[in-house]
Amino acid sequence: MIGAASCVHSASLAQRPDSLSTVITALAGGVGAARLLRGMVRAVSASDVIAVVNTGDDTVLHGLYISPDLDTVTYTLGGLNDDERGWGLAGETWKVMEALERLGGETWFGLGDQDLATHLYRTQRLASGAPLSQVTAEITSALGVGARLLPMSDDPVRTRLRLAGGPEISFQDYFVRRHHDVAVEAVRFDGAAQSRPAPGVLDALDRADKLVICPSNPVVSIGPILAVPGVLDALSARREDVVAVSPIVAGAALKGPAGRLLVELGHGSSVVGVARLYAQVAATLVIDEADAGLATEVEATGARCVVTPTIMHTPEHATTLARVVLGGAAAPASSTR
Ligand code: FO1
Question: How many other CB atoms are there within 10 angstroms of residue 8's CB atom?
Answer without folding.
Answer: 18
